[in-house]
Amino acid sequence: MGCGGNKAVRTSGWMDVHLNNEVMNPDIIDRKLFDWMISFRRDLHKFPELSWSEFRTSRKIESTLNRWGIHNHRMSETGIVADIPGPEDVPIVALRADIDALPILEETGAPFSSHHPGVMHACGHDGHTTMLLAAGRILSKQNDLPAPVRLIFQPAEEQGTGAKAMIDDGVLENVAMIFGGHLDRHFPTGTLAVTPGIVNAATDAFIIKITSSGGHAGKPHETVDAVVVGSLMVMALQTIVSREIDPAFPAVVSIGKFSAGTVGNAIAGQAQLEGTIRTQDMEIRDHFKEAINRIANSVGKLHGANVEITFNSGTPILRNHPKMSKLAREAAIRVVGEKNIKRVSPASMGGEDFSYYMEEIPGCYIRMGSGFEDRMNYPAHSSKFDFNEDAMKYGTAWLCEMAFEAGKYLTKSEDTNVAVV
Prior knowledge:
It contains 10 helices and 18 strands. By secondary structure, the chain is α+β, with helices and mostly antiparallel strands. It has 2 domains: about 10-200 and about 315-410, Aminopeptidase (3-Layer(aba) Sandwich); about 200-315, Alpha-Beta Plaits (2-Layer Sandwich), CATH 3.30.70.360. Strands 3-4-6-5-7-18-8-17 form an 8-stranded mixed sheet, sandwiched between helices. A 4-stranded antiparallel sheet has the order 12-14-10-15, with helices on one face. Strands 1-2 form a two-stranded antiparallel sheet. It is elongated. The two termini are about 25 Å apart.
């Protein structure tokens, strides 16, 4: 058997597997492959690319897959999809990685720091891409895959638009279930966090435009001050969480940008607030929009200012399917052992566009422990973010195990159509 088998097998020098309900050896990833992974990840890190501009990254993924003989094609301009064959009568198991970087000036001091000023892999997507490629290499060498496997290298996760674009272009065609993960410095390297239910919040953005009669700073009685109106809105909006939402349910409203005025001696006649809503319940998500409309318009009316509100729906709630979570946990136990299985608790208020896939098909999204023991662990989206590269061994092994665990489930299921659960 291969990654998910029940006996020891060496696969072309790339991977040692020792299974029979035993834990995989921490050195499961062959040294030759791991050396390649480190080199590949650091190259991606040196040349990060923003959402929808991942052209070099896509070319590197393509050339690597082509060199390994893994069929692949472009999708959504910078996305790459690779298919590894399996039984023709079984639907596909999809594994996904994100490939884009962030508009951040790197300050890690690493010898492989970004060569693109103001752009940085500050969220581990260079590691995600590398792990999925390595898993594809291993899986392509197996001759006993229980189901076909689709590798999805997705652009624009940071904008929250890449997954939806890939879905619209047909990436889930004939796919029964999907799995993915994120490197997470909150957990020690060598651990995997598998969490049934909610793991990420829904994210929605809003803009409030205020228009009033500005004027001379020395004659405020002749004006309606857009800065004062906007400031009152900022404070009033905070009462939504403190006074309108059940405290048992996580919810956040934050104003991240407040623009107004041009000079210090004039009262602004225009202001703009830009903010975000984070929720883990659909009713609360809807209530937020009603409450923001009600409060902002009331404050504007109170002071004689015109108010225009625009909402931009973001990523949905990311909710792991219970059965898929069980499969993901079984795969994780084989890699790190039950004592090294963690849970994300409480769920993150950050967004993740993997949720779009799971609105279409069942799946599970895990966290891969990547914390350092001997140095500071800076948060994701920090200019000093980095992760323990040893974490890529465990993440790659889990992706391989996941392909086998999910495939075996599909072959045992009475219903082998795409909608299997």
